[in-house]
Amino acid sequence: MPKNDNDPWIKIICPSITPPSLKDNTADVDRLIRGVRKALKTEEVVIDYSLIKRIPSSLREYGYDIRPVLYETRGTWHLVDLFPPQDNNKIFGLSVDLGSSTVVVRLLDLITQEARDETSFLNPQTEIGPDILTRIHFASQKGGLERLQSLLVERLNEEISLLSKKHQIDTASIVGMSVSGNTTMTHLFLGLEPFWICREPYIPAVNRVDLIKASDIGIGINPESPVLVLPSVGSYFGGDLVSGILASGMNHQKEVSILVDVGTNAEVVLGNSEWLMACAGAAGPALEGGVAGMGMMAGPGVIDKVIIDTQSREFRIRTIEDKPPVGICGSGLIDLVAQLFSAGMIDLRGKYVTGRCGERLREIDGVKHLVLVFSRDSGTNEELTLSQTDIDALLRSKAAMYTILTTITNMINVSMEEVRNFYVAGTFGTYIDPGSAITLGMIPDLPIETYKPLGNSSLKGASMALLSSSARDEAYEIRDRITYIELNVNQEFMNHFSAAKFIPHTDRSLFPSVKEWRDS
Predict the structure, then answer these.
(1) pTM score, two decimals?
(2) Are residues 353 and 517 in contact, defined by beta-carbon separation less than 8 angstroms?
(3) CA dist., res. 373 & res. 382, Å (int)
(4) According to a count of CB atoms within 10 Å of the terminal CB, is the N or C end of the chain lower?
(5) How far apart are CA 181 and CA 231, in angstroms?
(6) Is the pLDDT of residue 87 over 80?
(7) φ, ψ at 519 (rounded to 5°)
(8) What structural domains does the chain harbor?
(9) How many secondary structure helices (H) and strands (E) does the chain include?
(10) Within 13 Å and on the Cβ side, how many CA atoms surround 267?
(11) Nearest to residue 214, comparing CAs of 148, 264, 160?
């Protein structure tokens, strides 16, 4: 993996600049450039007109003892600002995970390269629509795109202001920002038309954006700060996946690895140091608990773990912060359905087995529901139930997930047994129990130690790219190396999908560790 410690592309320096005299009447800007070139050992220094106007007075105010901040791109250093000669000169940056549901912001000390703080908030664009497609359609309306961008930027600026006040930082000393998100989210952040992203042949406006100034998009940090947007590969493979590859280091490993990120879609990367293949498919919402009647995002009182005694069929549930249960998140839902299968309460088709479900099973509006939490134990004072419809949706999503994996491995003749590292990104990867996912047939039946949660790899990769020029450049190299497969037109995907809708699969030899309940 690239190192972040010796190659920053945003720097504060201490150049030697002598005051002018009758013997040396070099212009102020030229004098500054001469000092910067010597300090950075480079000839390529650029100062924008907006800064040139301020340089003469700043140099004299600070007695020609100044601390310039510059950033490098394509071998050229650009001036961001001039700071006074204080012993406590500090510069900061922000890395942002631009999720469609949640946005995470990390404050980084660009000198020590340490994370100072981190905050997250609900993406304000959810008030327009919870899903990407709704936002794309809204963006095509008059003023829609501007509204979506302003909602996000204004909320980001509020959080930046709060972070700055909390740490007593002048926003002018925040001199860089990196942003990682899916292709649609980065378009909406930049105010770019996303209309064609979801329409055949699925074309984004741009995949790679050069560094832009914070002032160009209204970000409330130093106006000359560079904003790095991690590059996308295509409409359904964004900078968040490029960040994930960077964070995992799979592109440096000789052995074959898989990276999976489940969000709006299930996105998969397969490869090693020599090659990288990628694809994406619609498998995300149900795996995140998004389509279940009691499904919720992780939070206090949300069920994240379920265990069912196979003999007594007693339920043991765990909630976040041990609060009374109010709903269930993706990891809890996967646990629940896997446990129902292991206890014989649903069959291989995912259908409820009446005799095994007992008093928990009831019919509501013609649909079977299983009571997970009775009203007396619920934090909502209402029963929390799992409907047959919820299970069917989960099985379609898990089938899509497994089929994405088998399709991409089959296309390049790689067996699952060759996979040495299976990286799972995001909150899905942090909380999912691989054993439960294997039981459902969602992921391959590999040794548990093969599965490695990455946490928020989008944020981690964005932070790496902000702190290190080699990591930043590597992100672009990763983007250029990836071969992307479009599954929407792949017939093999459809052929394998039906077989994967059963628990764990119609071919039981693929899941030797999964035991089906038997009445003793």
Answers:
(1) 0.88
(2) no
(3) 8
(4) C
(5) 9
(6) no
(7) -75, 115
(8) 10-83 (3.10.20.880), 92-229 (3.30.420.480), 239-283+394-509 (no CATH), 287-388 (no CATH)
(9) 16, 22
(10) 26
(11) 160
